[in-house]
Amino acid sequence: MAMALCAGARSCPLQALLFSLLLLLAAGSTAALPAQPAMDRVRWQLGMVSRRGPSLGLVMSYVDEATALQASGYFTPWPALPFVDLYAPANKRLQNQVPLNAAVTVQTLIDVFTVSGIVHYGTAGSSNDSMSFGDVSVPKLVAYTGAWTWKKFKSPKESSAELRFEEYNIPNGENLLGSLKFRNEELYSVGKPMEEVFWLPVDLAWFKIAEQLKVKLERCNNTFCLPTTPKVVYGLKGSSADMFLDNAEYRKFLFREFGVSTVDEESAAVVMTTTSPGIPVIVFRGVSDLAGGEPTWSSTNLMNLASINALKVAVEFIATIGKQKPPISVQRSSN
């Protein structure tokens, strides 16, 4: 994994620690353990970083998101140490485990650096027809909807959400796949017993600050202009799973059963990893596709626009909390 230190962000007085998940998510990437002299240098570099005090972790996942950051000019590298290269267990067995990769990377970030909070931004699909390309969602709750329990055929529908495959047969009829029930996650928090949770909240204090942001989003990129200016939407729900969702019926099911407005692969893992030690976290997701049923103009034309808009809101948030006096506490606020 690669980390870039940025001090003196142009629109952000708070020192930010930028951390990329790109190498963990790259297919087929493997990282050999460094030789001892290289490890000694890494330890020396980490010591320099630690002496600068607590930092924010800015976490992203894909090339477009990193490209938007590099091209933005919002941050400038710290001349004394612009980059630190770390090593992580990125191998073929983890290629298709995006939530696991995200969790491992964020945990490494928390363990290695003095982090006062995590700001996560990226792209997402929309499962809410009121949200379209370029819009940015700042969810209040996220859930991992990729954990299922298969149920016997013709099992009675329970009070919790259950997907019955026969309801989607064409023509109508029984389906031997039966149905599946969505599982809760086991959350282990410092000083608390294990609890089963489905919804994971972002930090409430940070969310309230984000609600006050005034950000004008971009309507055009180099190749395309949207018919209207995108908007920032607060307080919705997000869904994460270890798959890229491109199915109109399933996106409708998620919206109908859980009320989720965006779907992605990392947000729930990032929020759960930071919730356990009590570190503040917030999520900004730009809509890059409609998770199935796109119009004739391809959403790939707008992927970078979604990344740019999500980054704009994230940077404005970082600038705002950087002006807070006293700074936001490392302790997580009560949700």
Automatic annotation (TrEMBL):
<dbReference type="InterPro" id="IPR035994">
    <property type="entry name" value="Nucleoside_phosphorylase_sf"/>
</dbReference>
<keyword id="KW-0732">Signal</keyword>
<feature type="signal peptide">
    <location>
        <begin position="1"/>
        <end position="32"/>
    </location>
</feature>
<dbReference type="GO" id="GO:0009116">
    <property type="term" value="P:nucleoside metabolic process"/>
</dbReference>
<protein>
    <recommendedName>
        <fullName>Nucleoside phosphorylase domain-containing protein</fullName>
    </recommendedName>
</protein>
<dbReference type="GO" id="GO:0003824">
    <property type="term" value="F:catalytic activity"/>
</dbReference>
<dbReference type="Pfam" id="PF01048">
    <property type="entry name" value="PNP_UDP_1"/>
</dbReference>
<dbReference type="InterPro" id="IPR000845">
    <property type="entry name" value="Nucleoside_phosphorylase_d"/>
</dbReference>
<feature type="domain" description="Nucleoside phosphorylase">
    <location>
        <begin position="101"/>
        <end position="319"/>
    </location>
</feature>
